[in-house]
Request: fold
Amino acid sequence: MGLPPFRGAVRQIILFSTAVYIALLLMLAFAPGLGQAAFAVGILQPEKVLHGSLWQLVTYPFMYADPIAFLLSLVGIYFIGSPVESQIGSQRFYGLFFGSLIVAGAVGVALSRTGVIAQGTAVGSGAAADAILMVHAVFASRRFDQPFRATLRTPQFLLPLEASSCGQEVSGVHAQARPQRLFRRVRQLQAAR
Reply:
């Protein structure tokens, strides 16, 4: 199968995020005051957004304090974003990425006004990765006869040898069947023993 193509909007978002992350690390290492100031200007701080720092709704996804969060977000965007971008195009992918971040940031700012939830700052592109995952799930559901029904791929050693008698063809290392029918037949075979 192979890796998804590294091109288009996904590539530009990942490269820009990486460049910002490295620049922040270098600033924090060699000019800590400048690095902390740049980080403070870029992260989403609800009180500052309410007082006019609206750019934070667009800059916070490129700010990361945790290297694991940085890596996981970008790996998710790469693996899930590439198929989504190939279906909707680069311009719509940018719209999805930044639109979901702006909406998530604005909702977070609004919720912070309750004084109960969404307190504190926000960093990283997790909201965009979640939105991309949801779009990917919607596209995947269109490939099947019912929403979110996927082909069951079960290793053959987990099925009884009589699995081929359930009316589905067993080939190679997996069986393809509707989950309910296959599980019902497996239960019948187990009860018959």
Remarks:
- The beta strands are 154-155, 170-171, 174-175.
